[in-house]
Amino acid sequence: MKALLILPVFLISMATVLSAQTVYDVPLSGIEMVPRVQTPAMGSLQVWIESDTLYVRGTFSDLRGSYFAAQIHYGKRGETGNRIFRLRASVNEDNRSGEFKEENNKFHLRPVQRSAITAGNFYIIISSNRHQQGEIRGQIPRI
After folding, report:
1. Domain segments of the chain as ranges
2. How much is the pLDDT for 102?
3. Which of 10, 39, 138, 140 has the maximum number of C-beta atoms within 10 A of its C-beta?
4. Neighbouring residues of 93: CB distance < 8 A, sequence distance ≥ 6
């Protein structure tokens, strides 16, 4: 009888382990921009994939200008590329800092996009009105 009780607990534990997702950190800074941007701004985002959906959450602060936009682009480290997704930020009253909530920043990945992110060819930029091409950037690691 005890063996029957152990087996269901083992199966539940395995299901939990199998459903866990790896979360990847994406630090953002002006040094990563192309060309580099001198700025005190910084950001710390987390990304992960569940099934074919990419999730993004995190914060940014100290932009030199008012928040303008945030996007995920295609491109290798040190290269610029086309916009793939637009992120939605909850901007603080100062308009220079804010948060990305995962429920507002989830994106269905097509197979070619999934291949690109798996290869580490996506990056995130946050733009201000002072640096509309991007003030801070972070490369999404290979997922």
Report:
1. 22-139
2. 97
3. 138
4. none
